[in-house]
Amino acid sequence: MDIRYLHTMVRVKDLDKSIAFFELLGLEVISRRDFEQGRFSLIFMAPPGQPECPVELTHNWDGDEGLPSDSRHFGHLAYEVENIYEICQHLADNGVVINRPPHDGRMAFVRSPDNISIEFLQMGEALPKQEPWASMENIGSW
């Protein structure tokens, strides 16, 4: 049986804030489709040069009232990064809370404006422990 990854879909409440957040991660819009009759938009964003690895942002223009709330079944999006300290500092400098700082130089978690858990994993071996990250406390859930 052949199988191929397509995308991960997440619902977003504020499309502009969500696009801005994923742009902070380095993703770019690779396609957008607005459905006037169904009153929703689908925005696909991916890392540069990796259009085969998109996240689909689904935005219902009239909100999500009445839709099933099963987000508890969603785990997280995961991205491998060249320097975990740099991405965390970049996000923190732009007001993003680092819920699970990279204490170990290997892994960190943040949340999107829609409370979607995002995991960052250091490419290759873990970086040497570095302050202030090594001694930072976890914040909230991730």
Task: Give the termini distance in whole angstroms.
Answer: 34 Å
Helix content: 10-25%
User: What portion of residues belong to β-strands?
Assistant: 25-35%
Assembly of the depicted chains: single chain
Task: Describe this structure as you would to a colleague.
This protein is an alpha/beta fold and 142 residues long. It is built from two helices and eight strands, in the order βαββββαβββ. A four-stranded mixed sheet has the order 1-4-3-2, covered by helices on one side. A four-stranded mixed sheet has the order 5-8-7-6, covered by helices on one side. Strand 3 (40-46) and strand 4 form a beta hairpin. The termini are far apart.
